[in-house]
Amino acid sequence: MNDLPIELKITECPRDAMQGWSTFIPTEKKIDYLNALLRVGFHTLDFGSFVSSKAIPQLRDTAQVLESLRLDGVHSRLLAIVANLRGAKEAAAYPQINYLGYPFSISEEFQRRNTNSSMEESLHLVGEIVDECAATGKEPLIYISMGFGNPYGEPWSPELVVQWVKKIASMGVKTIALADTVGVSTPANIAYLFSNLIPEVPEVEFIAHLHAQPHDWKAKIEAAYANGCKRFDSALMGIGGCPMANDALVGNVATEQLIRHFGGSNKLGLNDEALGVAMALANGIFRHD
User: Fold this and answer.
1) DSSP bridge partners of 140
2) Which partner from 64, 129, 210, 280 sits 20 to 30 angstroms from 219, CA to CA?
3) Average pLDDT of the chain?
4) If we measure between CA atoms, which residue out of 60, 94, 68, 64 comes closest to residue 79?
5) Residue 3: its pLDDT value, please?
6) Cα–Cα distance measured from residue 44 to residue 24, given in angstroms and rounded to the nearest whole number
7) Claim: this prediction has a pTM higher than 0.85
């Protein structure tokens, strides 16, 4: 990876790691961890969500956490996940937040599980979020959930993904993440989608949000990168997964492995000492006693 461009972007996803954790992580621990991650220098920090506390109780303290983040001298952008217009408006009111992220599912079943709405209602909400972002100076970031397969027996094909991406892009969305919600992606469909979408929808910056097992993460990352994707979501220790998808959470790609794969912290413009501090905190938080 000696020819790796510096512009490769990593979004660290502690929100994804925390949301399905079985025991509540104390607010002060979240604050310390997020502040440590901010010092590493990731492009974006997926730090929290403005969703129902009944749906995701682990993140009910997102607003409190946000107010305690130390952002002076920090270049990382903040991303908050929302699931409805109320949450979008709440998140957009905070000047610290740069991106409003919304999971649009190309599975009717998962859309209902995840946001309690139909795909038609969800598409309408995407338009409302785009408008809210335009009015408040935020950027919409739309996830294509179930972007690499469907575990519910519903129709899925790469062509269907391309169709939906083009529809979302036509609504003014410039950042789209293809999300492997339940870890069913393969190097073949990853390669097909990025190699087709990146030239066909050049106005969009694409993100690979891949869930993987320890034995297959590298092949998936390589397939995305080789086919033009230069922005990746990951989480330290590979913790994460969507608690709304199924009972077995498939973890995120581990950030530390991603960094090593692409040549190390210095190659990516990251602070290696700060990364070590964050790793130590992650080991304390995400430890199974």
Assistant:
1) 100
2) 280
3) 92
4) 94
5) 55
6) 24
7) yes
Q: Domains of the chain by range and CATH?
A: 13-285 (3.20.20.70)
Which two structure tokens, joined as six digits, stand for 103? 């999971």
| Locus of tokens 């969305």 | 173
Q: In this structure, which amino acid lies at residue 126?
A: V
Give the residue-averaged pLDDT of 196-219.
Answer: 93
pLDDT tens digits, residue range 231-279?
999 999 998 755 444 444 558 899 999 999 999 999 999 999 999 999 9
Options 13, 133, 229, 242, the catalytic residue: 242
CA distances 273 to 41, 202, 277, 280, 282, Å, are: 11, 36, 7, 11, 14
Specify the residue for token string 């709405």. 117
Beta carbons of 171 and 127 less than 8 angstroms apart: yes
pLDDT in tens, 155-187: 999 999 999 999 999 999 999 999 997 888 999
**Known catalytic residue at 242:** yes
Report the Cα–Cα distance between both ends of the chain, in Å, rounded: 38
Beta bridge partners of 10: 232
Please compute the mean of the pLDDT values over residues 54-70 and round it to a whole number: 96
Torsions phi, psi of 180, nearest 5?
-90, 75
Report how far Cα 139 is from the mean position of its chain's Cα atoms: 14
Cβ burial of 214 (10 Å; 0-12, 13-18, 19+) is exposed
